[in-house]
Amino acid sequence: RMETDCNPMDLSNNTGFEEDSDYRDFEGTDVKDMRLEAEAVVNDVLFAVSNMFVSKTLPCAEDVAYINVETRERNRYCLELTEAGLRVVAYDFDQTDDRLQTPYHETVYSLLDSLSPAYREVFGNALLQRLEALKKDSQS
């Protein structure tokens, strides 16, 4: 089981939305817009799943966003992103099921690691390739 110290929440500044006037109000404040966080999460792991995008039908707010993900095994999930972390809220896109009591995961990595063996393999291989490239760089 692979764990990483990298937290996708730290990557929200790389989304490119800062220039967008709609989001300028959030700069310099403590308010986190979960849509920006969700976009960062998607951008971080999209390479390791079949499909992943922020829901356009479920409401995004300052404190919650929903992400649709389809694993390489073709399983579909709707994820809820809050300050508490990420959790599965339905087994299809753009759905929530209040009866579903799934645990929160601190990172998208640990959530996908628990849902998708193929994600784990692709992510692990990408990590190994990156390490090999770093090793080559340091030897030259």
TrEMBL record:
Span list, region Disordered: 1-22
Gene Ontology annotations of biological process type: regulation of canonical Wnt signaling pathway
Matching InterPro entries: GSKIP (IPR037395), GSKIP_dom (IPR007967), GSKIP_dom_sf (IPR023231)
Entry superkingdom: Eukaryota
Molecular function via GO: kinase regulator activity; protein kinase A binding
Domain GSKIP: residue ranges: 34-134
GO CC list: cytoplasm
Family: Belongs to the GSKIP family.
Protein name: GSKIP protein
Lineage per the UniProt record: Eukaryota, Metazoa, Chordata, Craniata, Vertebrata
